[in-house]
Design a protein that fits this description.
Strand content: 25-35%
Strand order of the largest sheet: 5-4-3-6-7-8
Shape: globular
Distance between the termini: 46 Å
Structural class: alpha/beta
Radius of gyration: 17 Å
CATH topology: Rossmann fold
CATH class: Alpha Beta
Length: 209
């Protein structure tokens, strides 16, 4: 798939929204990529994951890992397509949040990752923080992180920012303008924060506390 085809697909499933949003990083924006809008559409999700798998089909990937929750779905689909392409089993696993701001491999996934060539997948990255933490978690478990890939890179995130895997790619590079709360014109104009998607609900709860 080309970048324009990926953008058309995301538009079709309603992943692009406009309004007043709060990102995971805490920055505010008038545009938002609602990644969760993708997952009910299994054929579209599969198609994007096949495209991700094609990027690494010749890299000898043995296990695909994504951060829970959404990217756990991606890891399964990407691993499935790599298995079909290579004719041998490629495992799908995911990393759970550890409750302290990081990630951990549970359920025996650390054993699956150990000693294997790994690909880290993510749906959306703004700062690279989540991917970097999963890359570090896979490495700590003894995995060799060959690469990392996101569907949308909306923050001009670099390979260095995601922990220096072998390579870092994205299906779409998208720049969404964003501001710190103190510089947010939307806040100044009294435009309500969307509390249904993004981190608007947590933001408003803290404001009321």
């Amino acid at each position: 798939m080309t970048e324009s085809e990926v953008l058309d697909l995301l538009q079709k499933v309603g992943a692009f929204r406009s309004g007043h949003f709060v990102f995971t990083s805490g920055r505010h924006s008038d545009s938002y990529v609602n990644k969760d809008a993708l997952y009910p559409y299994t054929r579209d999700t599969s198609l994007l994951c096949k495209t991700m798998a094609e990027r690494f089909a010749k890299k000898g990937i043995e296990v695909v890992v994504g951060p829970a929750v959404g990217a756990a779905i991606l890891s399964q689909w990407v691993a499935y397509h790599l298995t079909e392409m290579r004719g041998e089993e490629v495992y799908g696993a995911y990393a759970d949040k550890d409750g302290q701001g990081g990630f951990t491999l549970k359920r025996g996934y650390d054993q699956i990752v150990r000693g294997k060539r790994a690909l880290v997948v993510e749906d959306l990255t703004t700062t690279g923080g989540s991917i970097k933490k999963v890359v570090e978690t896979v490495r700590a478990a003894g995995g060799n992180v060959i690469g990392a890939i996101a569907i949308v890179n909306r923050g001009e995130v670099t390979k260095e920012q995601v922990g220096n895997p072998g390579e870092f790619q994205s299906l779409v590079d998208l720049h969404l303008e964003s501001w710190e709360e103190s510089e947010c014109e939307l806040c100044e104009r009294g435009i309500p924060v969307n509390t249904d998607i993004g981190h608007g609900y947590e933001f408003m709860r803290k404001k009321r506390a």
